[in-house]
Amino acid sequence: MREKKSWKSLMALVLGVAMLLPSQAAYATEGQAEGKGVEAYEESRGADADGFEIENGVLKKYTGTATEVVIPEGVTSIGDYAFIGCSSLTEVVIPERVTSIGDYAFADCSSLSGMTLPKGLISIGYEAFCGCSGLEYIKVEEGNAVFDSRGNCNAVIETESNMLIRGCKNTIIPEDVTGIGKQAFCRCTSLTGIVIPEGVTGIGSGAFYECTNLEEINIPEGVAVLEANTFNGCESLKKIALPEGVKSIQGFSFQRCFSLEEINIPASVEEIGPAFDACRSLSNITIPRGVASIASGAFSGCSSLEYIKVEEGNAVYDSRENCNAIIEKESGILLAGGKNTVIPEGVTSIGRSAFLGSGLSKISIPKGVTMIERDAFQYCSSLTEISISESVAEIQSAAFQGCSSLMEIAVPESVTTIEDYVFSGCSSLTEISISESVAEIQSYAFQGCSSLMEIAVPESVTIIGRNAFAGCNEELVIFGKKGSYAETYANENNIKFSSTGMALPPIGKKTISSNNVSLSQNSYTYDGKAKKPTVTVKDGSKTLVQNTDYIVSYSKNINAGTAKVKITGKGNYEGTVTKNFTITVKKGTSHKVGSYQYKVTGTSTVSVTGIKNNKATKVKIPKTVKIGGKDFKVTAIGSKAFKDNKKITSIEIGDNVRAIGVSAFEGCTKLSKATLGKGISEISGNAFKSCKKLGTITIQSTKLKKVGRNALKGIKPTAKIKVPAKKLPAYKKLFKNKGQGRKVKIVK
Question: The pTM is what?
Answer without folding.
Answer: 0.62
